[in-house]
Write a structure and sequence with these properties.
The protein has 67 residues and is an all-alpha fold. It is globular, with a radius of gyration of 12 Å.
């Protein structure tokens, strides 16, 4: 659904769906909560579009770089 778009469904701005996906992918990031078990983080391996989406939304909302 994301493909090469910045936001899901080709929207011009992030939607509630983008926020929902971000909520999951941010917590799955190995650096977010310093989980000892990194199996959730490994689920995102190779999903660069989701990682980029997470980073874009983080920077848009908090104005800082994310991992």
């Amino acid at each position: 659904m994301l493909n090469e778009d910045e936001w899901f469904f080709g929207a011009d701005e992030p939607s509630l769906f983008d926020a929902d996906v971000f909520a999951y992918t941010y917590l799955m990031d190995a650096d977010a909560l310093a989980w000892e078990d990194d199996s959730l983080s490994k689920c995102l391996e190779g999903l660069d579009n989701l990682k980029s989406h997470r980073k874009r939304l983080y920077e848009r909302c908090w104005g800082e770089k994310s991992s």
